[in-house]
Amino acid sequence: MRVAIVEGDGIGREVIPAAVEVLDVLGLPIEKVPLELGYGKWEKCGIAIDDNDLDVLKSCDCVLFGAITTPPDPNYKSVLLTIRKELDMYANIRPIKPLPGVTGVTGRSDFDFVIVRENTEGMYSSIEEFHEDVSYTKRVVSRKGSERIAKTACRLAKERHNDLTIVHKSNVLKSDNMFLNTCREVAESENVGHRDMLVDAMAYSLMTYPERYDVVVTTNLFGDILSDMSAALVGSLGLAPSANIGDKYAFFEPVHGSGPDIAGKGIANPIAAILSMKMMLEWMGLQKEADIVEEAVGRCITEKITTPDLGGSASTIEVGRAIADHVRNMLDG
Ligand code: NAD
Ligand code: IPM
Ligand code: MN
């Protein structure tokens, strides 16, 4: 396996080395291919990602990615969106699962759901027009795009509790009828239990009744917002991992961004990055190793070796090292 390692900007440069330290302890036959991309590169060379970088990414089996700063400058095209589109990674899988001994804003830990976010269209079409007094962004919802994300969500639902919630805003955004109807048709044909929710009501419901949900499928922007919000149920944005999956490539990254307010302080929580690496191991079919990493994360939190977002005083490096040590001990024992 060849894995591109992209630290990116800000805390991406702190959390990815911690995830790589844990990966290295597993001693797997993985070739790591470091690649510099992002805002830092743009400032230096005027380009954040070039064709050569895309070729390197495509020459790898998958990517372990930190975070990239995306300024609002219309001349700066988001690296992340470019990669997701170029590698056609249409499914963004974001598990929302409690970790031992941590509770989030609601104080509860009786939920376990997965947000399946459409990752290549919706409000992220990049079809935009800017004029002096008005700007436009075209929202794209296609049958093919809706069908393939619905199939991914149904596949996941069948491995879990066979319960799909389709989240949309078709009362106002009529383009969402395509998404809703296609998801319903796919769920019917796959015999997956399903219901639908308007996104605003869903935001409330996820915070109030998170235990009701199993697999949540939604369009790009709604999935982006609901996943950051749901990380508050788990306890920190620094705990939320994700996987961008296509038919050929996959790309693993924490849900969070480059954390400019804490970058350089050495206090970013590396667990979201480490659990993203764990999702990469699962994608590679290495379930035993993935379970070891998850167990090591749980042990580290239970021992209260945590960064300030979880109320502790440990550094990124200390948390990464504690998890790596637990992995080593489990492999030895
Ligand atoms: P952010 O996710 O970087 O930070 C939001 C808040 O969560 C901040 O207070 C931050 O300190 C905290 N936080 C995030 N990750 C944490 C961690 N691991 N440990 C502890 N605290 C953590 O969101 P933002 O500030 O809105 O965005 C910053 C930049 O990142 C923007 O340029 C944005 O476009 C970009 N971004 C990139 C990605 C990505 O590359 N995957 C994702 C989201 C945002
Ligand atoms: C995420 C991020 C990205 C997104 C941005 C940085 C383009 O917020 O991965 O959730 O909105 O998809
Ligand atoms: Mn986001």
Automatic annotation (TrEMBL):
- Start and end of every Isopropylmalate dehydrogenase-like domain? 2-323
**Key words of the record:** Magnesium, Metal-binding, NAD, Oxidoreductase
Q: Which SUPFAM superfamilies match?
A: Isocitrate/Isopropylmalate dehydrogenase-like (SSF53659)
Is Coiled coil found in the keyword set?
Answer: no
Signal sequence annotation: none
Q: Can you tell which superkingdom this protein's organism belongs to?
A: Archaea
Keyword Signal assigned to the entry: answer is: no
Q: Pfam families under this entry?
A: Iso_dh
Q: Gene3D superfamilies recorded for this chain?
A: Isopropylmalate Dehydrogenase
Q: Which family does it belong to?
A: Belongs to the isocitrate and isopropylmalate dehydrogenases family.
Give the matching NCBIfam families: LEU3_arch
By what name is this protein known? Isocitrate/isopropylmalate family dehydrogenase
Highest lineage ranks of the organism?
Archaea, Methanobacteriati, Methanobacteriota, Stenosarchaea group, Methanomicrobia
